[in-house]
Hints:
The chain is an alpha/beta fold. Helices cover 48% and strands 17% of the residues. The protein contains 23 helices and 16 strands. It has helices at 15-21, 40-46, 51-62, 68-78, 113-117, 120-131, 146-155, 174-181, 197-209, 211-219, 232-251, 271-282, 298-305, 330-338, 341-354, 361-370, 378-392, 398-414, 432-439, 441-446, 450-461, 467-470, 488-495; strands spanning 3-5, 8-13, 30-32, 92-96, 99-103, 136-142, 161-168, 188-194, 222-226, 261-266, 286-293, 307-309, 356-358, 371-375, 419-424, 482-484. The protein has a six-stranded mixed beta sheet, with helices on both faces. The longest helix is centred in the middle third of the chain and has 20 residues, at 232-251. The mean pLDDT is 95.
Amino acid sequence: MNYCSTRDKAVIKDSAQAILQGISADGGLFVPTEIPKISPSELQELCGKSYVERARVVLGKFLTDFTPDEIKDCVEQAYSLERFDDAAIAPIARISPDSYLLELWHGPTCAFKDMALQLLPRLMVTSANKTGEKREIVILVATSGDTGKAALEGFCDVPGTRMMVFYPEEGVSPMQKRQMCTQDGDNVWVCGIRGNFDDAQSGVKTIFADKATADEFSAKGKMLSSANSINWGRLVPQVVYYISAYCDMVASGEITMGQEINVTVPTGNFGNILAAYYAREMGLPIGKLICASNRNNVLTDFLGTGVYDRNRQFYATSSPSMDILISSNLERLLWQLSKDDALVKELMAKLSTNGRYEVSGELFDKIKELFDSGYCDDDSASATISRVFDDCSYLADTHTAVAIKVAEDYVARTGDKRKMLIVSTASPYKFSHSVLGAIAPKMAAEILDEFEQAKAMEGHTSVAMPSPLKELEGKAVRFTQVCDKDKMLSAVQQAL
Length: 496
Ligand SMILES: *Cc1c(COP(=O)(O)O)cnc(C)c1O
């Protein structure tokens, strides 16, 4: 199976090369030149298997240049019970007769990024061995909060790699900041920037696109790569949990094999929902893909009108991991639905110069057929957290709440009766201030310290706080550096 650049079909790589490189030299993203299929009988067989076994099968279809043993080693190390606190790895909770939450936050950093970032370092090191790459792999990450910590945890002390994280200084929750700035490991570095996530992401992309920088690094025996969801190695592990969730629903009798379900995904960079799209294209019986946004609703507008316009107010919301106006992975969808690299290149050039592009005709028709969308502001997310907790004692985080509300709105608007799988992307304890504010506003107003808030929430709800978050309380802060958004490259050079 080969991969090509979304901006130039003639650039062809195998998966090891695509994963090592992260992004194509032309600025495009790597996409599979064809999407492998999963048959109903294969799906049926996976129903009786563990998450690790399901991952082996699904990854094997995409990473055809890896041996089955290589995949097995990577997957077994990534999804072990030393790292995940639930034997199902990605368990499902039912919150109403027809809606289910797929909990993707049982890994070491308590957000869904672990699902991919526990695996990516292993895929990268295996790829380096396969391609004979001897240089140290320097991974640059821009984070809206969760990716940074998950990448630090995934790459911490992995030989042959170095991990450098940029986060918007004012754009992450106190718990997220604490998680990153207390990170252990000799090969990690963390820096705040004066700017928002889009600034951090653009800064990292600019460093990647600069040939002189690449040459300078190479001369020093280093190569740059990415652990953001622009890397194919981040996306492919995410396809697995949609297939796994479907198998779990069949195995528990909630649906019958072949029955279509809908999926709602709280979306920022469009990586998670794109993985659901790939699962659907493989043959998983998914009906609609529903894209849920917060007040930064650039995707709601795009999926509704065909106009992508990032020229708008940026809001810092209570779901910070979705505070994004440039959703990088949309580029992959545009390629998948058009197979037209010249078009994708033109649209991305427009996005970069005017901050705006428009799709119409057949391409937009295809998008509308596959996707629905909606958004939810902070007040409404807060009301949803409170209502879901009252109704079924389920404590949802702010991102998950956005998705629950958008899913409910979708059902009310369309009358679509298919069962709904709603993706739950973070532990409520990563956003204790907002979540406690939703269920016990008086308590939240009186308690200022984040750990005291979390403890109060634990007492109030009897939902246990995950141990990796509990353990942060006693940890020393190691990283305090902050730089201007146009000084990221020199910060990297200095740190190295
Ligand atoms: C990253 C993240 C998202 C957004 O996912 P994308 O793949 O960027 O669309 C949603 N919720 C949480 C908690 C996240 O960490």
